[in-house]
TrEMBL record:
InterPro entries, sorted: DUF6044
Species this chain originates from: Salibacterium lacus
Residue stretches spanning the membrane: 6-24, 92-111, 131-157, 169-196, 208-226, 273-295, 316-333, 353-370, 377-394
Signal peptide start-end: none
Name of this protein: DUF6044 family protein
Keywords from the named record: Membrane, Transmembrane, Transmembrane helix
Length: 570
């Protein structure tokens, strides 16, 4: 079959993969962590409050009694555009379509033009590997942070070869506005910088066009993140809670266990189902390569190098993957505290995230390994087909609909439960701006999505002063639980109404009921911050001891929650 046919089949499979978003709509089951509990709400709130382009110090009253605008996401991004053009769920769905198809065609171009030979087998492996890569469980709000790396690498390699077509520069210009600098591309561009330097030393002639590509992308990211540049690098704006970060006290045994797990299973923001198919395919190719080199040395004869450039690259790429996995492991080692305690930037920023790029490296290694199997083994093409089917099936098994439905997660509609929270607002009968709420047993994002003004929230940066103020509400519960106390004091990204009895669980749906027997809630501090109502997904047995009066219990068939509305009394 021709390459075009394989591409059309792959496009059809990607559309089938994405079809639950269209068929089920808001009935689809989606990732909650770092997704429905946070990023989606940030953009929805920015758009609905008309503060996308507001000044840094503009306060958003619906969040944390006035979260400064600079704390939330950049407006110069594809996400801001999508949430401006569409309602939240369609915006989310369109984002996933864009990510998947960019991942597919980006990886296909990279493999065809720069990695695999342009043979019939090479074309088939390129398409099959690109399909598997496009079905990877990418972090939805990463945009092209990982899904777009192959496309950007393709453009850089073209520029390196002096192919300065305008499309290569267009890729470098557009991708920064649909990806994250601090999550992935700062590390990718650092690698490109090393690549450029090695070339300059090796050929004794710097490729300044390639260098300008690196500078261009970096500059565009800084322009996109101008708020962060102004607030952090220039020392302007509020003092962020991140100055109290005190993470990374793992002992050596824990570090080694994390290293092994990261190597085999990657990270939730850059998850790749490379074990067992891609992993053992790569191990086989590595051993085969080592065997060819050993035999050649034993014969001690001068003969042409039997290895292709691609086969020679396999050990180097696998070494890079191992190094990156080890680096993130020791980044959280207790021995690194010496550097983190000495330099604020090292303490507040995770320089270990090189490992998030492993998802791309694994698929390049997989493609090279498949090519070796096809060339070196009798009936190798049959094995290649089986391995590609296994890899595609493995990635498909992690489909959000399969994964989250199987663990009894609520659907998008059930999670945000708009009708239920509309009933709560109607019962209260006041404008939401006139009172503040916190949630217990569920993510504050649910209340925030439905227009409540929340004192609690999940955000990556907010004023340190607010962290200390909110602590007065939860200090009694933190004192009971060392894990929660450490979680809040040394990180603090989740400003939640924690409970010792619930722990770090925020998904107590009506099918997962629980009763808090002894809550120590700082009601007076809550009232001082404007708090009036507690939206609890669980029953609070000693509510009266905390001056919380149960007003009413709300429940309906389409909502995941059974909400007890408590009112704080003086």
């Amino acid at each position: 079959m021709r390459e075009r046919t394989w591409i059309l089949i792959s496009v059809g499979l990607i559309l089938a993969y994405l079809s639950p978003l269209v068929i089920l709509g808001e009935g689809a089951h989606l990732r909650i962590h770092d997704n429905l509990d946070s990023n989606l709400i940030w953009y929805k709130t920015l758009v609905e409050n008309n503060v996308l382009f507001a000044p840094n110090d503009k306060e958003i009253p619906a969040i944390m009694n006035g979260l400064p605008r600079e704390a939330l996401s950049a407006e110069l991004s594809m996400f801001a555009l999508l949430f401006t053009l569409f309602d939240p769920f369609p915006a989310y769905a369109v984002n996933l379509f864009l990510m998947r198809f960019t991942a597919f065609f980006g990886m296909l171009l990279l493999l065809k033009k720069h990695v695999l030979p342009q043979t019939k087998a090479g074309s088939f492996i390129s398409v099959g590997t690109a399909l598997a890569f496009s079905l990877t469980a990418f972090w939805p709000f990463g945009g092209l942070s990982f899904a777009g790396v192959p496309l950007v690498l393709y453009a850089f390699l073209n520029i390196r070869k002096r192919k300065n077509h305008w499309t290569n520069w267009l890729i470098l210009i557009l991708v920064p506005f649909y990806s994250s600098f601090i999550v992935s591309f700062i590390f990718f561009l650092a690698i490109m910088g090393v690549f450029w330097l090695v070339d300059a030393i090796r050929y004794k002639k710097p490729n300044w066009t390639f260098f300008m590509g690196i500078v261009l992308m970096t500059a565009l990211y800084l322009i996109k993140q101008y708020r962060l540049v102004y607030a952090e690098l220039l020392g302007q704006g509020f003092t962020p809670h991140r100055v109290e970060f005190d993470r990374g006290y793992r002992d050596w045994d824990t570090v080694m266990n994390f290293f092994g797990n990261n190597l085999l299973h990657a990270h939730s923001h850059s998850y790749v189902y490379h074990y067992p198919f891609a992993f053992f395919t790569a191990v086989f190719a590595l051993l085969f390569t080592a065997g060819i080199i050993a035999v050649r040395r034993l014969k001690r004869k001068r003969q042409p190098d039997p290895l292709t450039p691609g086969e020679k690259a396999i050990p180097a790429l696998l070494l890079m993957i191992v190094v990156f996995s080890f680096w993130i492991s020791i980044w959280n080692w207790e021995g690194m505290r010496v550097l983190k305690d000495a330099v604020d930037l090292i303490n507040e920023f995770n320089f270990g995230r090189f490992h998030l790029l492993n998802v791309v490296a694994w698929y390049i290694v997989f493609a090279l390994s498949l090519m070796m199997i096809q060339r070196r083994i009798k009936f190798g093409m049959v094995l290649v087909v089986l391995l590609l089917i296994g890899q595609v099936a493995g990635e498909t098994s992690r489909h959000h609909e399969f994964k989250y439905r199987s663990i009894d997660y609520p659907s998008y509609e059930e999670f945000y439960a708009e009708d239920l929270f509309s009933d709560i607002q109607d019962y209260i009968g006041e404008d939401p701006s006139d009172y503040r709420v916190v949630s217990i047993g569920m993510h504050p994002a649910v209340a925030q999505y439905n227009g409540f003004y929340t004192l609690d929230f999940y955000v990556t940066m907010y004023p340190l002063e607010y962290k200390h103020q909110f602590e007065n509400i939860i200090e009694g519960e933190l004192a009971k639980n060392d894990t929660l106390e450490n979680y809040y004091n040394t990180w603090g990204g989740r400003v939640y109404a924690f409970s010792d009895e619930l722990g770090k669980n925020y998904l107590f749906t009506k099918n997962n009921q629980y009763t808090i027997e002894n809550l120590d809630f700082g009601t007076e501090a809550f009232k001082e911050m404007g708090g009036e109502y507690v939206l609890s997904a669980v029953e609070i047995e000693n509510a009266e001891d905390n001056n919380l009066e149960l007003e009413k219990v709300f429940e309906n068939e389409s909502a995941a929650w059974k909400i007890r509305l408590y009112r704080a009394e003086s």
